[in-house]
Each structure stands twice: as C-alpha cells, then as structure tokens.
Design a protein that fits this description.
By secondary structure, the chain is an alpha/beta fold. It has helices spanning 5-30, 46-65, 85-97, 110-123, 153-161, 179-194, 215-225, 241-251, 276-279, 295-307, 317-336, 341-348, 404-407, and strands at 32-38, 73-79, 103-106, 127-129, 142-144, 170-176, 202-207, 231-236, 261-263, 283-286, 352-354, 360-363, 369-370, 374-378, 384-389, 410-412, 419-422.
Length: 430
Amino acid sequence: MSKSPMSCGILSTLLALWLSLAGSFVHAAQDTIKVGILHSLSGNLAISEAVLKDTVLMLIADQNRKGGLLGKRLEPVVADPASDRDTFAEKAGVLLTQDKVAVVFGGWTSLSRKAAIPIFEQMNGLLYYPVQSEGEESSRNVFYLGATPSQQAIPAIRYLMSKEGGNVRRWVLLGTDYLYPRKTSEIMSVYLATEGVPSEDITAIYASPDQSDWREIVQSVKAYASGGKKTAVISTVIGESNVQLYAELVKQQIDTSRTPFMSLTVSERELRGLDLGGLAGHLAARNYFQSVKSPENDVFVKMWADFNEQRDTTTNDQMEATFLGFRMWTQAVSQAGTADVNAVRQAMYGQRVNAPSGFEVVMNTNHHLSKPAMIGKLQASGSFDVVWQSINPIKASVWSRYLPESAKRTADWTFPWVCGGCTEPTFKDR
C-alpha cells in the first residue's frame, strides 16, 4: 500500500523533530558538568551526613545562578551509600563509570574512604572528603578537607593541659571501635607520653559502632576520673551513638568542671533535640563553629538558611569544609579552563578561600588544607562559643611525627617528591 503525501509529510516532520530533539539532548549533555554527591541518606551516619548532600545541592544551585562553570550548568548526581563502606565503594564506581561525573563530594568514615580510594585511583576520579581523619594517608585522587590530628586532637590536648583548659593530667580516650578513633587515640597516647604523662594516667575505651547503652561505659569513666588527678575525656564517638552517649552523660550528671568532656566528632547538628541545658559546658574541638564572627560566615549562614527557606538555620564544621572544597574546585576548574581531572588536580595546589571560619585557608601539595583549630563550649542554646583558637591556620601534618615510622614519611604531589607517603623523592638528579 502506498503512503499518502500527507502521511509522508507527517513522518518527515516527526523525523525532523526527533533529530532536532536528539541533537538538543546531546547539546544539553555537552553543556553540563556532572557533580557526584555521595553521602549517606540512610543508616547510622545519616544523622551527620545527609545534610552534606543538601550543602552540595545548595552550592551547585548558587553556582548555576552565577552562570554555571565554563559556560556550562552543573548537574548533581546523588547516590546513597547507606552508611556502608562497601556500598560507598560500589556507588563511587557507578558515579565514575556510568554517570561520568567530573568530581565527587562525599564520604564520612575513614573505612568508607579507604574502601573507595582504589576505585578513584583506578578510574582517575576526584573525591573531595569533608571530614576530619586520622591522617597517615595522602592519595593523588583525594582532596582532604577536614582536620588531621595535628589540627584538632593535639590542639585539644594542649588546651586541656593548659591553665585555661583546667590543668588536666589524666585522660580517657573514648571512641567508636574502628580505624579513625583507634589511630587518633594512638597518636594522642604517644603525644601524651612525650609530655610526661605516665601510661597509668591514659586509658582507651572503644564502643561498638551501634552502641546504644552507655550506662556502664559512663560509670567506668566516672570511676577512672575519681583517681585524684584532674581527668578529661576526649571522644571520637561517631554517628547516632552520640545521641545516646550525651543523654547518658546528662543522666549520670557528669560535671564538666571536674571532668571536661571534649568531642572531636560532635557538632551543633548532632546535639539538636537533646536536653541542651544539661549539656551546657561540654567542649568540642573543630575548625569552625556557627558562632564565628566574620563577614564570610554571615554570608554562609544566610545562604544555608535561605536555601532551606528558614526551616534549617544550623551550619557546622563539615558543611564549612564542603563549602571550602566546592569553592576551590570551581576556582581550579575556571583556572584550568576544563573539568579534566589531571588539569584540575594541578590547579588545586595553592587555591585559597576566605573561609567562614574567618581565616584564609589554602590547599597544600599534600592534598590537605591549612586550617585554624578552635575549641568551643556548648551553650544551653545549642551553639558553641569559641573559647580558644589558633592564631593562624595550621598546616596539616599528614604523617604524624609522634609515630616513628610515619615521622619518616613525606606527602607531596609535586616534583621531585610526587608521592603520598615516601621517605625520599621519587625523582632524583642523576
């Protein structure tokens, strides 16, 4: 049966329309830069991590309002690792190979980061990791936005040992039983020994990642603190477990003037909904608190509140770290004139941002930021008042000088070292 001229015309028109749309879709794909977001939206870590997904979405929306990047819109691609390290690695692979993202902002635990690093290195992807870590690592495919022990744990100890911090002489190192708390406690223990603290005045306690009953652990802390010397607790407990831990501290009436409790892992957000009146006086060591007074912080806090239409006005350390990483990435892409990983990595070295913390921070060739150290005291309102801060940003010691084998290592991804942890330069003069 022959086709009528009308039907042939319609088919031709439809074909032309389809080709036009297909071309538009290809053009649109070429006019976007995909940004991977890999933060837990479910599981034990969602209480801390889910907000970072929204932080990246906020920053992408802000960048797109400014015209995007290199004339292209940024397109978010969100994946949920569900608080599981293996899923984190799996989702990272999907983002890099199937979604073809130019960069990934994500991660929380050190175990999830380490599980995914081989994927990023094999596929030559870039991960911007926003959480404090134990150090002892520098990958050419990861930019570390959080603190190492030299920028957080060691300043916390020094503060507590000072007259201002209470002249503490006995120590409880309380953490979740996994890599970051154990390695950080090891570094703190060696540092305390170098300061003349005898081993009997240092005890480490590790709790299950899903610990919910803290009664006996808090009782043991109280018993240890009754030994006659001023005792402090430094906590590296992570996730939802902090809710039950702090509730138990209130229940057992831990007196912070007698037994200071310093967290390296709690921020303003994890404590929302608790009896903050009973928790007033507890301490945290961070690189940023929402209460910081700076023009940059005013803009940052307002940006977050406006993005949430005033439903959520609380910012924290990891959100600021994500902000710093995102700003530096956009600056590096603009400087390089491309989102290509190799070009962006090279352009990242020396990137500077006037941070909400009130300091200018810089990305070093060891892939870690120089950041200020701060000690905050929790108020009944839920905010932390800054009671001490470093004069200048502290350059991260990636490999701790308090661990003999680590002290020999250097992390520097520029010539002649070009390594994340070698004892001599990779390239030498012949």
